[in-house]
Amino acid sequence: MKNPFILASGILDTYAETMLRVAEDAGAVVTKSIGMEERKGYENPVIFEFEHGVLNAMGLPNPGIERFGEEMKKLRGCRAPVIGSIFGKNEKEFAHLAERMEEYGAAAVELNLSCPHASGYGMEVGRDPALVKAIVRAVKEAVQIPVFVKLTPNVSDITVLGMAAEEAGADAVVAINTVRGLRIDLEFKRSVLTAGIGGYSGPGILPIGLRCVFELKKVLRVPIVGCGGITTWENVIEYLMAGASAVEIGTALRNDVRLFKNLGRGVKQYMKRKGYERVEEVVALAHQNR
Amino acid sequence: MHTRIVEVVEENPAVKTFRFRYNVKVLPGQFCMVWDGAGEEVPMSFSYTGKIKGVTVKKVGKTTDLLHRRKPGEVLRIRGPFGTHYPVSSKKYLLVSGGTGIASLAPAAEKIVGRGGKCRFVAGFRNASEIFFIERLRNAGIDVEIATDDGSAGFRGFVTELAGKLFAGESFDYIIACGPVQMLKEIGRRFAEKVETYISIESLMKCGIGLCDSCSILGYRVCREGPVFRAGELIEKGWLEE
User: Fold this and answer.
1) Please, what is the end-to-end C-alpha distance for chain A in angstroms?
2) B6 touching A, CB under 8 A?
3) Which of A22, A25, A33, A47 is most worth mutating to test chain B (most B CB atoms within 10 A of its CB)?
4) Number of separate domains in chain B
5) A5-19 as b/e, with b when 16 or more CB fall inside 10 Å?
6) Residues of B whose CB is below 8 A from A22
7) Rounded distance, CA B139 to CA A33, Å?
8) Which end of chain B is more exposed for a tag (fewer CB within 10 A), N or C?
9) What's the pLDDT tens digit per position in B193-241?
């Protein structure tokens, strides 16, 4: 990776052309989460934007793993490594999806064990440590490429999930996916989303993501990818200091597709000011200085 | 933001315009997401951009059918305005619409004339029963010609042919078009190399704010970098061959 910025799954990553555009500045890009079959997702409204971030319940719309091969083909010349995000009901589906992603040329797979708004998938599977273990094991057996596990913050103790993933052989964990949330429309007296409950992203969840990374760093040896609420370079440094080795960013890209470039400049200047040469020197500093 | 419908105008048996107060600056060509709290939230171009805004909705399925039942006094939630807008100045324009594409071009035409620009408008419809907004444009002093597929009104044939005829006899600084994608591509083929040509693209919208990639074409987010594009920019990326 040429820099620690990764395009988070679900944002600007349905079509290869858009991903290629973001990949100009990214260290890596994660695809939209792909399942066994095509899914249309929920009807609109699927998104609600407000002052502290975005609430969404897209419902895992995707073309299915077979058809996604066409997009992966277009991504062959991509400047940044492409990480294939996948979601399934059980270890068998996950293993199959991972194999296909590997065939398509993915540099790694990211297991979506954390989508908060699709029945039978995501966090419904990913909040059970035994299932997390079984799925990660099955995928590790099925593929040679690194396996990232994206964790849900919607549990009382995220470290239990992190340890389950690590024990089963995960190469890295990604924390966090969106936080389950709800907003209500006062005129229509109902949820602002068709699905009812959605996933909360954006600046409002920054402290939650940081806390989860901080807790995970205390118990894990595998690298952690921090995700959730980053909009500025200062937020990136916070994640690194909390224990992340890289970061994923999604929601903030809506207003600036070249955001990674600007963040990179800020991070570099900070490191220079403080006398650091490599990103690794900043990782987990907040654990020493307590 | 929520707003009450102040007026519903039946433009033709399948098309209604909903007028509402929405105190935000909107430029012709921009769109909003409209939700009535019951059906699906849908993207709609603004058909009126003045003090009382408007969207013009064609009944094409379940959602638009539900919207058509909305009456004055009922509440809509509007998100937006989103996206890019038409270039509007005191230059000379040829505006070309296909079907309901006239809805987003009408406020642009009025603005151009308001700024002292010149504007010729060619409006294509399948047949005479689908025609709307022509009176509105003529009242604003805009020279409108109609094309219908079956010849039931005006020129018989495609609106792109009629535009070609006008273009052959006059010079224009800009061509702006809104309508079905095949029509827009024909506009691109005919005119993009000869004159500044802008087109407004329709696409499947979900978030409307540049996040979800549902509406993207050729690496452009239609909700952010569009819906109004310079045709030449898309053509360079292979749009005509798509």
Assistant:
1) 30
2) no
3) A47
4) 2
5) bbbbbbbbbbbbbbb
6) none
7) 52
8) C
9) 999 999 999 999 999 999 999 999 999 999 999 999 999 999 999 999 9
Q: Cβ of B224 under 8 Å from any chain A Cβ? A: yes
Choose the final residue of a domain: B82, B104, B123: B82
The Cα of A11 is separated from the nearest Cα of chain B by a number of Å equal to: 5
Residue spans of chain B under pLDDT 50: none
DSSP B161: H
DSSP A75-135: TTT-SS-EEEEE--SSHHHHHHHHHHHHHTT-SEEEEE---SSSTTSTHHHHT-HHHHHHH
Task: For the beta carbon of residue A41, count every other beta carbon within 10 angstroms.
Answer: 19
Tell me the ipTM for this assembly: 0.92
Parent domain of B137: 92-241
* Cα separation of the two ends of chain B: 37
Location of structure tokens 């490429």: A145
Tokens for B213? Answer: 């990639």
Cα separation of B223 and B213, whole Å?
9
Cβ count near A253 (within 10 Å): 20
The answer as to whether B228 is a domain residue is yes
Work out the pLDDT band at A116, boundaries 50, 70, 90: confident
Shortest alpha-carbon distance between residue A201 and chain B (Å):
12
User: B206, A43: Cβ pair inside 8 Å?
Assistant: no
A223 pLDDT above the threshold of 90? yes
All residues of chain B having their beta carbon less than 8 Å from the beta carbon of residue A254 are 207, 209-211, 224
- Looking at the structure, tell me whether residues B54 and B104 fall in a common domain: no
In order of their start, the domains of chain A are 5-44+60-179+201-288 (3.20.20.70)
